Amino acid sequence: MGVDVFFVISGFLITSHLLRRPPRSASDLATFWARRVRRLLPASYLVLAATVLATVLVAPETALVPTLREVGAAALYVENWSLAAQSVDYLGAESAATPVQHFWSLSVEEQFYLLWPLALLVAAWVATKRRSTLASTAHVAILALVGASFVWSVVATATSPASAYFITPTRIWELGAGAALATLAATSAWRLHPALRVPTAWTGIALIVGSAVVMSGSTPFPGWAAGVPVVGAALVILADVTRGRGSPRLVGDLRPVQWVGDISYSLYLWHWPIVVLAPFVVAGNPDLLDRIAILTLSVVLAAVTKPHVEDRFRRHRGRARTTLFVTMGVSVAVGVACFFAASTLQDRSDARLDAAEESLDQPCIGAAALDEGVDCPADVPLILSPADAAADKPSAYEDDCWESPPFEETTTCAYGDVDGDVRVALIGNSHAGGLLPSLQELAEKNAWSLTTYVASQCPTSDALWEFESAEA
């Protein structure tokens, strides 16, 4: 829920800033983007570099390739699309979380920062042609965008929930909600009655807290459910409360709360890599003391990063275009380097797997080592690395025999003797698919006709399943 609130606040603040200083030229756009780059990227690159190093030092070999791939995506700020692509893969959907998975929300935000000034530049041109204000023109367009994105979010959450959580079109309405509040404030003298401000603010806070308490990982999200924290955040912004009896500002003005707010960006960057990598350090699930240590380390690193990295680069006053060119170069270089390293490591893993397959006919491999006529040494090295496990899949994957959601057509593959008298059907999900190599060998030896009917997320059952949304 915190991400949804974060999106609303970001949309409000950035749009308010752009309305006060609307972009009217390429130079204005470069200045805006350069400020965002100085504010956000140095700390994120530091965390990405530290995460790769920590993964090499403490994580198992199996974690390195996926981490490098996602660090590359995070450096290019397309991590949300990378995770969406993985989430629709049945075998990838249950993969362990990587240390940079939280960069998906930062990717959505950066994509918003890239496109939003361009959208307002177009809105400014339209406003000039229509002889209206930028805020009023943008307000209408933003409301249309929010409506379209929200509908997309609801439909995608119902039909493709795995990818809907990450992709930008299903999230842009949350940023747009904050942007709509900014244009409303700029176009209207209307303000909430003072007597209603405090109750409105507390209502918004209650919606945010309530959604965090009531909703769980099984709640379809974003879709309709995301409306609760988004409306809550919008009410808090709309209330625009000042100090006074019963005001939430009394809590927000506390020095510790403000200090946490100041380091919140760095804290967000650091906390997730530490959470993901900590179990490898403590060799198990962290206990209470371990969790306290995780929190403490996250806060300490954030407190150091804020003044020495965030503030230092934010205050730098270089040329905007130079800043952008350097940043683009670094981002592309880091992304390409990470993808190249991941590809190289994967190629080595594939080569080991090929060597292992070629060695299956050797006398001292597997059950053949039990043959009485074979003299096998006791120090035969282990051929496979745990990192090769992900590539150890039945031929049904390579032969593209799988049906995947939304199951629009039936996909089958035939093995063995297709005209054989004995016909065998392999039906089920990936568990059934795991039996294919053995059945395939039996079919070839015994002239069976083996046909696969395998589908992701679709186990066999002798019961009749009926779904509420199914058509008669």
Automatic annotation (TrEMBL):
Domain SGNH, first and last residues per copy: 408-462
Molecular function terms from GO: acyltransferase activity, transferring groups other than amino-acyl groups; hydrolase activity
Entry keyword set: Acyltransferase, Hydrolase, Membrane, Transferase, Transmembrane, Transmembrane helix
GO CC terms of this entry: membrane
Residue intervals of the Acyltransferase domain: 2-303
Domain of life: Bacteria
Pfam family, one: Acyl_transf_3
Transmembrane segments: 40-59, 111-128, 140-166, 172-192, 199-218, 224-242, 324-342
Extent of the signal sequence: none
Record carries keyword Electron transport: no
Gene Ontology BP terms: lipopolysaccharide biosynthetic process
InterPro entries linked: Acyl_transf_3_dom, Acyltransferase_3, SGNH
Nuclease recorded as keyword: no
PANTHER family: ACETYLTRANSFERASE, ACYL_TRANSF_3 DOMAIN-CONTAINING PROTEIN
Protein name from the UniProt record: Peptidoglycan/LPS O-acetylase OafA/YrhL, contains acyltransferase and SGNH-hydrolase domains
Annotated organism of origin: Paraoerskovia marina
